[in-house]
Automatic annotation (TrEMBL), chain A:
This is Putative spermidine/putrescine transport system permease protein. The keyword Coiled coil does not apply. One of its GO terms (cellular component) is plasma membrane. Belongs to the binding-protein-dependent transport system permease family. Its main location: membrane. Keywords: Cell inner membrane, Cell membrane, Membrane, Transmembrane, Transmembrane helix, Transport. It is a multi-pass membrane protein. Residues 73-261 form the ABC transmembrane type-1 domain.
From TrEMBL, chain B:
InterPro entries: MetI-like, MetI-like_sf. The keyword Phosphoprotein does not apply. Its main location: membrane. The keyword Transmembrane applies. GO terms for biological process: transmembrane transport. Belongs to the binding-protein-dependent transport system permease family. CysTW subfamily. This is Putative spermidine/putrescine transport system permease protein/spermidine/putrescine transport system permease protein.
Amino acid sequence: MLRKPATATQVTHLQRLWLYVVCALVIIFLVAPTLIVIPMSFSDSRYLEFPPEAWSLRWYRAYLDSSEWRQATVVSFKVAGLTMVVATVTGTLAAYGLHVSRAKAGKYVSVLLILPMIIPVILLAVGIFLAFAPVGLNSTIPGLVLAHSVLAIPLVLITVTAGMRNFDINQEMVARSMGASRPWAFLTVTLPQIRNSVMSAALLAFIISLDEVVIALLIAGGDKATLTRRMFLALRDEIDPTIAAISTLLIGLSVVLLALSQFLQSKKN
Amino acid sequence: MTAQDVMVVSGTEPRNERALRRQARGEQGRLVALSVPAFFLVGALVLVPMGWLFWLSVYGSDGFTVENYTRLLHPAYKETLITTFELAFLVTGLCVLLGFPVAYMASQLGPRWASLVMLCVLFPFWTSLLVRTYAWLVLLQRRGVINSWLMDMGLIDTPLKLVHNFTGTTIGMVHIMLPFLVLPLYASMRTIDMDLMKAAANLGASPVRAFWGIYVPQTLSGLGAGVILVFVLSLGFYVTPALLGGGRVMMWAMQIERSMAVYGDWGAASALGVVLLVMTLGILWVLRRLTGASAGSGGH
């Protein structure tokens, strides 16, 4: 097996062994650190040892018993859910309009809409803080939703536009030539066919909002602190094992959403 | 429906061409208008504040000033700038060293193994940045996993200082940035025609020579995209350096946050911000030129 050629140019697997070893190490480097948090969250000790000497659920209990963590969790999910709606609706409308119109101005508009992805997030955070200060949106749920939506719109735009490219817009033309209005044709003909892209965009928007740290750090004070903001501040002071429990829950959620998005992607093709 | 479509349908030049054209333009305008809600959000929360930031950086209490910018030459700021660039270069270099073999291997594997490898590469991409940074804190701290393993194995007597310094920040940032390098590189490697390698061997090139002479040049556009992406993201990175650096590694983004939140010094914060913005947009503009040019010269 090892002596068989790995490529057409007769390099054997044995000669390539070093490559496989390096790649395996890099993949371990990418995956293992995140996974190690999971067993640690079930440790019974205050100290983070691996493998843990005794197992318990005390850090999950600590998380559920703390009203502060609970409140932050509720804020985070509320904001993520609303962000998903706002970003998906505005982003999909923009993607549809800009794709179908084929106007020259559309190109410039989409470049501007992509900007939040390009500008360093610390600058977005400072700018949003500046913009919210006079209108009192700092440390409010609507403020956080608007800020996170801006962050998510570029990805929604890109994902939905990619879906639109696979869709033959003439189908909508046919529907309209048979008397459907444009909004009706969009809802009944176009939207069902780009459904998977829109749903995968919505998932992305949800995750972006849930994981966002820097903007929340600058604009979400008081009882509107998000989960990630509270985690960040807790980590700066001391390494509390409660965070291992929260991290494990977040990893679980991420994996579920990743699987879901992969599923949607595979259905698209 | 555009004016051209109408003409195709009717076959001859319609007499009401002007009216149709006007209608088509109106239709186009209404479609573009669908992007207004998104555009309004981005405009109000990104474009206007960036303009405002620029204004704050050049307009002080007594008129226009460049003082905020000349102040950036002060040693404290200069040190931040140097740290930021050092870290960005180091992280980018390490990402290339680690990412190239993985992308190369993934691009040569069969579809099932390749998608498994790419799933592993994407896995950290989909877990929260904060969770991954926390994981590194757990691993690298003084009484952390790595130190206790090394001590149990008798390799070291006293714990190594792996975190709350430059080393920890570098490790954490490489871990976060690696997928950004692998993805574009992998995408470009997949398009490479491996028959070219056979042709090179046929013409007498050794595998090493064929690799460096034929294969690597074709990966350069993907590699360039990945390198610039990682570099730019590193320049403006906040979360991981703030936690793994333990206050000892002062990055550009942290200086902005500190000037604003701790000292309330909007002049310094805005000038630092404008410089970061200009650097970021400038580098990305170069990337666009680069990938645009290489896409034209590449055979595929």
